[in-house]
Amino acid sequence: MSGHLRIATAAGDGIGPEIMNATLEVLRAAGVMDSTAPGHAAGVEFVPVEMGKAVFEKGNTRGMTDEAIRVTEECGLLFKGPMETPKGGGGKSINVTARKMWNAFANLRQFRSLPGVETVYSRAGIPIDLFIVRENIEDTYGGVEHRLSNDMIQCKRLISAPGCDLVCRFALQTARKLGIPAVHCGHKANIMKMTDGLFLDRFRVATRDFPEIQAHDVIVDALCMNLVVRPEAYRMVVLPNLMGDIVSDLCAGLVGGLGFAPSANIGRHISIFEAVHGTAPDIAGRGIANPTALLLSALMMLRHIGLFRPAAVIENAVLSALESGVRTGDFGDKSRPALGTAEFSREIVGRLGQSPRTVPPVPVPAERDEAALVATSPSSAARPTSQQVIRTFADVVRHVVGCDIYLDTPLSPVAVADEMQRVCQDTPFRLTLISNRGTQVWPTGSVYTECVDYYRVRFELREGFRPGDFGQARCVALMDRIAEKFVVCSYELLRVFDGVKGYSMAQGQ
Amino acid sequence: MSGHLRIATAAGDGIGPEIMNATLEVLRAAGVMDSTAPGHAAGVEFVPVEMGKAVFEKGNTRGMTDEAIRVTEECGLLFKGPMETPKGGGGKSINVTARKMWNAFANLRQFRSLPGVETVYSRAGIPIDLFIVRENIEDTYGGVEHRLSNDMIQCKRLISAPGCDLVCRFALQTARKLGIPAVHCGHKANIMKMTDGLFLDRFRVATRDFPEIQAHDVIVDALCMNLVVRPEAYRMVVLPNLMGDIVSDLCAGLVGGLGFAPSANIGRHISIFEAVHGTAPDIAGRGIANPTALLLSALMMLRHIGLFRPAAVIENAVLSALESGVRTGDFGDKSRPALGTAEFSREIVGRLGQSPRTVPPVPVPAERDEAALVATSPSSAARPTSQQVIRTFADVVRHVVGCDIYLDTPLSPVAVADEMQRVCQDTPFRLTLISNRGTQVWPTGSVYTECVDYYRVRFELREGFRPGDFGQARCVALMDRIAEKFVVCSYELLRVFDGVKGYSMAQGQ
Fold first, then answer.
1. C-beta of residue B4 within 8 angstroms of C-beta of residue B279
2. ipTM of predicted assembly, 2 dp
């Protein structure tokens, strides 16, 4: 990457403009905008774009102008301050919209103990230094929800093989780039055997291309216990979306809260670097906000585009300032004076070139190494002309073996079983299972199982028929017949994929 | 409750027998088995039952004998040590089997800082004292999973209104019984608006019957951050199953790990009290295991059956022993001698009647108050003769408005849209939405959205038709037609319930 590099920059709402100014002042002082910055002949240009409250107030429910979208897509990089989501009026969170619209599939967050930032863990002498990589598109975050009976609501948890591949490979590549020796895959594959089993499988497949990185897996509940007891055991953890969300915020707590936790959303075409804390409207405009999270997010961005040298110089200056007791009013030693936002950043600027004494300094690459690093940095791919279909598994042999039919009915399991056995009598299928909330209630079950008004009824091929003897038409016909008498609120085709059942057994089956 | 009370008791595997003996010795010394124990004229009888490794080894995949099941169901109470789940051979976790078989819908866990148990938080001077109540049946734990295309796997997250009611009311009742002033509902209703929205709604409805309890809600990621930063802000949190699992183990970490975290699984008929730590085969039989978690679980059980007085007496003795430096080898001040399991329990027995000095003692109810408490304690209901159907919402007016049809296809969104518009031409339905992994890709969408081989296609009534003009038969007919050309891997009926849409919109819709 050489020549002119542009970054769309949205200051944000509330304290956003103050902390953005402070952050850009530090970057400018470190030479990031200079034409002498190695690898970027004309320096980095921060291009202001309009996003946030003022845009929402003009009736734009995305909170971004068309021009802001155009510039961001051209740049491939967005640097943003915190933004308000208006209550009511149909406005949606800019963070969520941006992530979805631009398919930023991985959320990368860094959690690190900082000198001068007192936490429960710093007091106990336990240093924190880890990254969480969270899948950003799939899982229950698709928000695909249906009320299936009076009493039952369902949310689909969707996990795809290409989605797992993208985020797991991104985590391993990032570990390689940053020299992180070990990556854990966090999951709940002991319960969600197929979905989280897939996540774990794809992680394992990906690790084969990263033999120098130690790969481990950990069940998410044990992970959360361990993170609280000995957080130093982890350097990077990659997780599905919801678990990643929960674990990320747990880790923010370990290092003192969202004010010290930078964040990046990485996509194939567009990546977004942001502070994830709020807009703090109560102190906005008073020049006292803490810019640390946004500044640390900027350092993630510099490293993302290959500018390891200025990132290291700035990071050492930040560490040096913090260990000297430089602070804003929201943290640090209350016996020392609290600085304003601008003073805080000037203290950092004044320390550019210095190294911290109480914590290990970040190694600063030599200028000639920097050029090599920049050459291998990611570049934004060309704008696609339409949505791309991403694939992992092709050429799989698939055969229909039955269907699961879901009924909205207040009947008892026995009554449901009687009706279902009758309805499938002269079909290729036999009734093999009825479950309620995942627990088998027929052919066997416990009298203690309490049922709601929503049943799964499973039909599989009778003996004598083989997978593939019939197509899905027979299943649809069966459903049609059941729908004459019952409300069929949901249906799934049961298939074998390369001879392996593509469906789970019920608890107790 | 008066007369003879029996508790099925399974010592468990590994260190189970040692810690069970130690625990029962303490209970015996506190008079729990005496016929003079108030409220239980003949004292409590602990009835040994066979569960665990030895039973699995006889080829029983449930790991419990029929006699053990019969006795447990008669007693309504099971007290159990840790048990091994054999690898391979089809054996299933006894914990999961018991919870499911006996419909123990709530997992209650207590987390409390103990004197002498050093943790990061004790060193920081932050006391922990909270309960987590976890829904135990529903959510993704039903394990209802389907592979819907080569690349997409789905897990159903199921949340029912009666399931929410049971666990939320149990939490509030427990708070009332134990004098806990505030209960938080933990959820992710900002993302899973319908399922976790239901959980939160039902919590709020339940709180109306508990006006003396402060009710709050908290988003689960913020909860995890707060628990790490200021755990003292919470006294009881009730959560859906998976989040409850994660948060419970986080809290176990706060107090020193699973060795100090008792657990109860509460059902309408049968409740299970257990230590959730492992069987520690490496130290089994050496008489050095720490019985604290099992003993604390016994205290939860005593309170469950109304024996608050002996529970308080024992708890004070435990606190008194721990603050004196009484310890097993796995925790405490290494400069003091580590005791064996039996010695450890004898130290507790020797302190029955004493109160701790460094932490607040537990108030011991007077004998006559105890009798009143026992009278209000839960009793096990009669064995049901068949599965019960539990209901919250009845008399809801429901009308069909369309269907979501899910396709397994590698086509592009535009190609899918063309085909789907053609297929619904002469039906009462129009194509309103195509989404991929929850993100809208038609009629509008972003070129940056990356699609997998699994689409949701939404059909809703054309203008001029009203909800209820057609039944589900038209939807099944549409699906039948689509299935002539596409693989329909899944289907959901779209309805309005009392005029409210029973389905979510796509991101971007």
1. no
2. 0.94
